[in-house]
Design goal:
This protein is α+β, with helices and mostly antiparallel strands. The protein has one domain. It is built from three helices and three strands; from the N terminus they run βαβαβα. It has a three-stranded antiparallel β-sheet with strand order 1-3-2, with no helix packed on it. It holds the Pfam family PMSR.
């Protein structure tokens, strides 16, 4: 499994578009500052986070150029 990180405005809209691409298996959204594992599990009452989580890709089924064009 490979990962790629993309920036965007409304990350819920971006997430929905990326999930429609063949080969994209998972997309997670957040703010790009730093990475904290299990952030929401440790901070269940906080409605936002300060880190980015890249989408997981299957390199055999998804081409990076398709992702860039979508972005």
């Amino acid at each position: 499994m490979q990962q790629a990180l993309f920036g965007g405005g409304c990350f819920w809209c971006t997430e929905a578009v990326f999930l429609q691409i063949q080969g994209v298996q998972r997309v997670l959204s957040g703010y790009a500052e730093e990475y904290h594992q299990n952030f929401f599990a440790k901070n269940p009452t906080q409605g936002y986070c300060n880190f980015a989580i890249p989408p997981k890709l299957n390199k055999l089924r998804s081409k990076f150029t398709t992702l860039l064009k979508t972005h």
